[in-house]
From TrEMBL:
<feature type="signal peptide">
    <location>
        <begin position="1"/>
        <end position="19"/>
    </location>
</feature>
<protein>
    <recommendedName>
        <fullName>ABC-type transport auxiliary lipoprotein component domain-containing protein</fullName>
    </recommendedName>
</protein>
<dbReference type="Pfam" id="PF03886">
    <property type="entry name" value="ABC_trans_aux"/>
</dbReference>
<dbReference type="InterPro" id="IPR005586">
    <property type="entry name" value="ABC_trans_aux"/>
</dbReference>
<keyword id="KW-0732">Signal</keyword>
<feature type="domain" description="ABC-type transport auxiliary lipoprotein component">
    <location>
        <begin position="32"/>
        <end position="191"/>
    </location>
</feature>
């Protein structure tokens, strides 16, 4: 009879301990963002080019990448979505900002506008980017598949399908997102090369 009286007390204390352990260090969601490698690169800074105007966008992402979870690839056909590792913002916006910052660092101009830009902004070049894949394996490599169109004024001067990869220098998500930033920097350099 005494053990039946203790059952509610045991149950309450178990629930309390369980709640405390999840607050102390249980499964917590971590948030990440891409970074502009060109701004922190050891490469020689380009000559300032303040009159060069660049437009970026629209940028589109495949549906698989339009979610808060970071996507990794288990095999050629199997993916994983990390509930505990998510983007701190909207990946499309983050990616567009990083590309713009990479262009600024590589071209020496701050005159970069994201689509849609103001009517009075007349870019010398603008680039449209469709991201089909931006994933890989923790501790392996990240692959970027992108189709991009480079315009000079209203003239389309290049249409390219790029497949780029970068090693993931670690087995955690920080290293994985850093590799995604690296591969976006590679894409930025390819596009900038066509602008010169």
């Amino acid at each position: 009879m005494t053990s039946l009286k203790l059952l509610p007390l045991l149950l309450a204390s178990t629930l309390t301990l369980s709640a405390c352990s999840s607050l102390i260090g249980g499964d917590e969601t971590r948030f990440y963002s891409l970074k502009a490698v060109a701004l922190s690169s050891a490469e020689k800074a380009p000559q300032a080019n303040p009159n060069l105007r660049i437009g970026i966008g629209p940028v589109s992402l495949t549906r698989l990448l339009r979610r808060p979870q970071i996507v990794t690839r288990k095999s050629g056909t199997e993916i994983a979505m990390a509930e505990e590792h998510q983007w701190g913002g909207i990946l499309k916006e983050d990616l567009t900002i990083v590309m713009a910052d990479n262009f600024a660092g590589l071209l020496g101009t701050e005159n970069i506008e994201q689509y849609p830009w103001k009517l009075d902004f007349k870019p010398k070049y603008h680039v449209r980017i469709d991201i089909e894949q931006l994933d890989g394996q923790l501790g392996g490599q990240v692959t970027l598949k992108a189709r991009w169109r480079l315009m000079r004024g209203r003239e389309e001067i290049r249409v390219v399908n790029s497949v780029l990869s970068a090693p993931v220098k670690g087995k955690d998500y920080n290293a994985y997102v850093a590799a995604q930033s690296d591969v976006l920097y590679q894409l930025s350099k390819l596009i900038v090369k066509e602008m010169r």
